[in-house]
Amino acid sequence: MATTTVAQQQLRRMRGMTALYHRRFFADVWLTLFAWLGVLIAGDFGADRAFIALPFIALFGAVITAFDASYLIFARHYAAALERYLNDRLGERVLVAGELEDAYLFTLRSPKVVTIGRNFTWFGFITLFFTVLGSAGFVLGVHLGLQVIEGQPATWLFLGVLGALTALSLAVGLWWFLAGTGERRLTGILDEAFPLS
Predict the structure, then answer these.
(1) Which of 43, 67, 173, 193 could bridge to 50 as Cys pair (CB 3.0-4.6 Å)?
(2) What's the confidence (pLDDT) of residue 194?
């Protein structure tokens, strides 16, 4: 009985984390959007060197929202394992939120680009929508930034630093999400602690 109580407490905590990181994701989307638009407006009002920051803000938005998604994935994995454990103790399939999330939001235990996987959903579309929007902001920012510093020695520094950060972010993101490295680390522990039935 004590172990099921602890499992219930942990499940409540993980469900709280999924709610928190959904909220955090959208807060970070708005933060990025307002920062990007603020810099765009400042540049339009004469501080055109501010345009150099635009692609960095877009890249920051992509990385921070992917971080939010990584914590969401973490909490969902743990919650689903706890639900399996509690269902096993109850002797019936009562807790199905993890299964519903797999079908309705995005599937765990499968290759994905953050939350976009083979089981395409509205949640995946939202991720894709923000990714396309952020990519467009990134490209426009590079264009405007290059117009400001065109022909100056800082051009190569701007492109070099931005290119290196972008390549690193993409490489680590693909390794962590698409290659499944992050989820394998979770499932290795969780499958041992809570074997799949």
Answers:
(1) 43
(2) 87
